[in-house]
Amino acid sequence: MKNNTLGGNWGTRFSLLLMGICGFGTFYFMVILAIQRTMEWPNFNHGILIASVPFGLFGLGMGAACLYGIVETFTSYRWDDTGIERSALFRPGRMRWDYVVDYKISGNNNTTIVLTDSLGQRMSIYLSLMSSQQRLAVANTVRERLAGLRDKQLKEMAWGVRTYRPARNVSWFLLIFAAVFLGFGLMPWFGGNVVQNTEEAKWPFLLIFGGVGIAVVLLFLGVYTWTLIISRDAITSSSLFRSRTIPFAQITSVMIRDTRTRNGTTNITTVEGAGRKISFTESMPDYTLVRDYIQGQAGQKAVEQGAVAAPGVEKKQLTQGLILMAVVSILGFGGIAGYAMYNDLQGLARQDQLDKQGVKTQGSLLRKYSTGNKSVSYLITYQYDVNGRAYEHDSPVTYQDYLTANADQPVTVTYLPQNPDTARAAQSIGRREAESKLHSTWAMFGMAFGIPILAFLATRKQYRQLEAQSLAASRPAS
To answer: Three-class SS of residue 335?
Structure first.
């Protein structure tokens, strides 16, 4: 082997270590700690488990993947004119170029290469764990050595039917979010002080978060069943909810463009024709092979038409994204803030009613408990009698009152004669908490309208650039 040795770098290892710690930390707080609190606190809201456990399990998987990634960064590759050698703790080996029968590239920005030889042995090369210079050297070497195989694969695309599932792995994230929303929706039904424990308060909470959870489940089903089929004559995109087919002979545009993401850019191919549109991204296996094959089948005119239309499409999608963000932010954060404000005002109204119409009586303290992790609330549970009937109620108190509270000690209780279930202890800080929540709700309202404004200001430069590119592309060539 020639002296061409590449491995990972310490910057990548440090990043993976931090991500792994975050992943295992998420599992600890979301699963282990939540289960411990369930066993230790009788009043712990079990609905939290529905929302937290999926995130915790995801964190465990992410931590394990990061540990594997750290080990993988110590892998080195050597190659010469005859083959490539992988020196690694897991799956080391050597593969001859002339024995390679399958060559796949996948992942955003083509970050993973998988080679398969005639004996069925596989070699995975993770470019994302290398520095930019190392990644480029390996990718170019593999591309040059296997250029003939790539040409053969393009020709073979026309001989059969290829089926891909572009987003099946990503779809599982949607289930996690669905569980979170459903868990929030069910929290009031498991007790706790998320909302006032009345039927009028529980049902809207369930409809808001449960409805979003069900919508995310339906989105999961669509994404999970999404299949891209490449045949000799057409491209077909199908899912549980719809199916579209574009014959290659009717393709009018093949648009290839990069869209910005949090981690850089993602390449997207959009095929138009026969009144339909099909898009897929580079996260799909064999993306470059499928993209190049479709370009060859569609012809140069369709490729040029796609290049002309790209700036206008990006501008349109940017506008749609801003509008969608504004609607989601205003209806989402604004709706939650409106619902929270309704509850807060109802709480203040009850405090005012107790001040004006309340009747005092003597009760006895039954128990005390606390809820929450970072923001802890302290509560006392007491019992009082009205017209020969016993009532039980909780009131929030300060930490000092919580410490001095003991079972069976007398408690002065104020209640409404027309509704004895509405009551408060003398040491209750219910009014202060209601006023504090109301201030937080106003901040959420500001967030609901502030996010779209900030997003618009942040994208103004990009919007102007796309406008200029779209205008230039629409002008006829001189």
So the answer is: helix
Tens digit of each residue's pLDDT (9 = 90 or more) over 343-374: 888 888 888 999 999 999 999 999 998 877 66
Measured CA angle at 34 (ends 32, 39), to 5 deg: 95
The pTM of this model reads 0.63
Helices (H) and strands (E) in the chain, counts: 13, 18
**294 touches 254 (CB < 8 A):** yes
Whether the CB-CB separation of 333 and 441 falls below 8 Å is answered with no
Give the start-end residues of each E strand in 3-151: 76-79, 83-87, 93-96, 100-106, 112-117, 122-126
Which are the contacts of 179, defined by CB distance < 8 A and separation ≥ 6? 50, 51, 53, 54, 213
Strands (E), 26-119: 76-79, 83-87, 93-96, 100-106, 112-117
Beta carbons of 287 and 305 less than 8 angstroms apart: no
Task: Write down the domain spans for the chain.
Answer: 1-95+128-134, 332-478
Looking at the DSSP bridge assignments, the partners of residue 247 are 234
User: Could you tell me which of 383, 452, 388, 391 has the C-alpha nearest to residue 421?
Assistant: 391
Q: Over pLDDT 90: what percentage of the chain?
A: 30
d(CA 433, CA 421): 19
Strand partners, 396: 379
* Three-class SS state of 186: helix
- For 393-430, the DSSP string reads EEEEE-HHHHHH--TT-EEEEEEETTEEEEEEETT--H
Distance CA 125, CA 84 (A): 11
In sequence order, which residues have a C-beta less than 8 Å from that of residue 389 and are 6 or more positions away?
A: 420
- CB count within 10 Å of CB 415 equals 22
Question: Which stretches within 286-333 are classed as H helix?
Answer: 287-298, 300-328
* Token pair recorded at residue 279: 């898009």
CA pair distance 468, 462, nearest whole angstrom? 10
List Cβ neighbours of 340 (8 Å cut-off, separation of 6 or more).
Answer: 437, 440, 441, 444
Q: Which two tokens stand for residue 9?
A: 């770098």
Taking the C-alpha atoms of residue 336 and residue 456, their distance in angstroms, rounded to an integer, is 23
Q: What is the pLDDT of residues 379-412, one digit of tens each?
A: 999 999 998 899 998 999 999 999 999 988 999 9
Is residue 43 helix, strand or coil? Answer: coil
Q: What is the dihedral of CA 465, 471, 475, 478, to 10 degrees?
A: -30
The residue type of 227 is T
Q: Are 366 and 418 in contact (CB under 8 A)?
A: no
